Amino acid sequence: MGPQEGVADDPLILVSNRGPVEHTRNDGERTAKAGHGGLVTALAGLAGHIEDAVWVCVALSDEDVAVAREHDGEAFEPEGDGPAVRVRLVELDGDVQRKFYAVIANPLLWFIQHCLWDLGRSPDITRREIDAFENGYVPANDRLADAVAEEVESRGGRATVMVQDYHLYLVPGRVRDRCPDVILHHFVHIPWPHPDAWRVLPPGMREAVFNGVLGNDIVGFHARRYARNFLLGCDELLGLVVDMDRLTVEVGGRTVRARYYPISVDPDQLEATAGSPAVVEHERRLAVNRRDHLILRVDRADPSKNILRGFRAFDILLDDHPELAERVTFLALEQPSREDVSQYVDYLEEIRQLVADVNRKHGTDDWTPIELSLEGDFDEVVAAYKSFDVLVVNAISDGMNLVAKEAALVNRSDGVLAISENAGAFEELGEFAVTLHPFDVQQQADAMFAALTMDGQERRERLAAAAATVRENDVAKWLRDQLHDIRELREEGA
Amino acid sequence: MGPQEGVADDPLILVSNRGPVEHTRNDGERTAKAGHGGLVTALAGLAGHIEDAVWVCVALSDEDVAVAREHDGEAFEPEGDGPAVRVRLVELDGDVQRKFYAVIANPLLWFIQHCLWDLGRSPDITRREIDAFENGYVPANDRLADAVAEEVESRGGRATVMVQDYHLYLVPGRVRDRCPDVILHHFVHIPWPHPDAWRVLPPGMREAVFNGVLGNDIVGFHARRYARNFLLGCDELLGLVVDMDRLTVEVGGRTVRARYYPISVDPDQLEATAGSPAVVEHERRLAVNRRDHLILRVDRADPSKNILRGFRAFDILLDDHPELAERVTFLALEQPSREDVSQYVDYLEEIRQLVADVNRKHGTDDWTPIELSLEGDFDEVVAAYKSFDVLVVNAISDGMNLVAKEAALVNRSDGVLAISENAGAFEELGEFAVTLHPFDVQQQADAMFAALTMDGQERRERLAAAAATVRENDVAKWLRDQLHDIRELREEGA
């Protein structure tokens, strides 16, 4: 059964902040570039199989705005390299967009959901944050919800709406108000924390978030513990009646289901990339320059990824095992992220500083212990996936962490996965990995050493089992399971 | 019915880090000073009514150690001003004591339980923390548990043991192992956070904590939400079977009950202090020097108390309401605390700096907007309780907060309580208070203004209702409710 069968009867409306295509203008020429990554591929693939589908998203680039205006804000078929799905770009006022994205979604919601605030000192909710919510997050969500509602209404009020992520918590509530007969499904790609974490927001804001999400029929998370936390929040913060066994909550005469679907990657697409000449060339270069042991990490440069403690653990590893001097490299491919948010600027600076310190302490004229790259070229990343001996994923908190899944699939060096117990991926891959305790730097150092010195046979078996798990639980399955639940819901309603 | 009736049949053994008496030596003279505060008074009062009772605690001062040695580590009747209960002082090695108290209990456990770690950066669990647990927290708990077990065994193995607080999580497990027939009751005086907060500790440490506490028959907290969090942790971190309706967990063939008993104060004792000449003299001095409005806060200088945001809110209040210039004083009585822990030293410095900044910005030659006192004289505190117009309790997280209860009882100025929704006291006093949202400094500023300008009749009614609530739910009731549950348990077992 193909994933598409699940919603074949209903029009499908996808909604996200970042869409499946981004337009740019170079030398006077417009380019429509499809997003890469499993999520966009999977959802665009799904939409391509549905007779009537449209993807509503924010016009992020200047050229996106130009395209949106050319189509009078209506849906259109992307040109050129774009995906095979109709797209409706929603233009936001620049000030609304900035408040929505760079004040509320990041860092405020992101930091709450990853438990990253230094609560003794920050955040302060001031007029700035209240204003950014009221005049940024709310109108941005309203604009997207209105575009969705128009698409639904133009189809007679029946459709399946699939909302993506933490930027759009208010969309489902507003769409529900306008279109009571719609099926609303929301997937949250980041962790959902325990109720107290939400108390950082004043009641007006946190209740708006919860009530918005409760507009859905189904709220999907990566892991059971996030689904449970969501329901505990409905209980503690809103006083709603929840059923922790059936994972449901009653609100306004409706039943909202919390479900979990671990996201994954597209194995075929990734294998194709791994075999491409560009990746092979990067791989060759890595092989020539490498030391005996290659430790790898790949992240967006985000505090949730726990990059600093990873380097502190490596520092301890080198202290504890002088025999590793000049024989190991820690390759860190860190993609700079959210550079308009001060917390991210500071964090990147701390990373640079720590790398310099560790390299100064342990390095020699001809050996740089930590090689930090801020380039983020995906071909280089895949080449490194193929080549590592140990992959470090020591996240403080991470909804899933697709790096672990990608790396398990394409590694060709009997590489060992070392995965944080706080990464969503640990639920599926933990049994084949070396466990990392994200706050225990000594344990991380010991775990790196255990992984580096693991017997070859055991490495091979663990890696093969991890890769098989990822192949079986691919992104198509992630989507299929959601569609199955949507179909079931529709049949119940019919 | 007096509180004592509940355990009249059994010997009673109290256990805590700080005991009911502290010995000092001045000019060659030994003094035995009874601890003050409702807890010590209540428990010592209880013990005084039990035929056979002993209080096991750590010998904290040098003179305590001398006394412990004089009694060969056995129990004794404290001399002079001491309480009417036999005391057994347990001497700890200085290094054990330091690791136990200043590394593990504070800051590590305290910061976890109040959600104060800046998780992107700290804490690091290193060899130092592992060592402090293994060679500090564990042996300190073992020493106290062994002293308790000896007291139990010398009484034929039957007794009621009441353990206090977060210093002693391992005591119940070890006592249970040695004395299976004992009734073990533990009261945790600080918040118990959601399960993920405990993941800061590596599994060996967090499982030791939970398994130690699970040696009890009853675990008492201030509030239902802490009891629930404890059970959620037993479920998520240990995989035990919990019953969230009955608030119980099954472990090793036993049922452990999570219960909640909000702690309180001794109204008569406090009223007596409030009427003392020393307090009246302080009060007179406050009245002479005061401006139109007196805002008060009283805390240990602890990040959980949210002192910085309170001053930032006051800064906003003065910005927003220039008519208050020279007419309001924010009196902050902050008791320096844990001065051997770097986080506390830093925090106090941040407080001083911020107070200086706000005073420089708003003050005049003859008006100091924030008066910061680091003295912590209790007579001065009680005088301030009697005199405030607004009391600010904006805690980030606070097990109970007795300041709110003490202040409600003795205030004579129609003072308004402004209480954080995250303080345990909010459950009882919130309906008579102005609510504070601890991260929302603008809201705190607005709430201070609302409180300062509240109608006199409403102030009087709210304060009277709050005081009546505290009087009714006093510390004797706190103890009575616990003894009731212990008695019930003993009757079930009999």
Proportion of residues in β-strands of chain A: 15-25%
- Report the C-alpha radius of gyration of chain A, rounded: 23 Å
What is the SS-derived class of chain A? alpha/beta
Count of the separate structural domains of chain A: 2
Distance between the termini of chain A: 22 Å
**Which chain pair shows the most residues in contact?**
A-B, 47 and 47 residues
Number of helices of chain A: 18
The CATH superfamily of the largest domain in chain A turns out to be Glycogen Phosphorylase B
Binned, the helix content of chain A reads 40-55%
**Regarding quaternary structure, how should these chains be classified?**
homodimer
Rounded mean pLDDT of chain A is 94
CATH class of the largest domain in chain A: Alpha Beta
Report the CATH architecture of the largest domain in chain A.
Answer: 3-Layer(aba) Sandwich
Low-confidence parts of chain A, pLDDT < 50 over ≥5 residues?
Answer: none
Report strand order across the widest sheet of chain A: 5-4-1-6-7-8-11-10-9
CATH topology of the largest domain in chain A: Rossmann fold
Total strands of chain A: the figure is 17
Give the overall form of chain A: globular
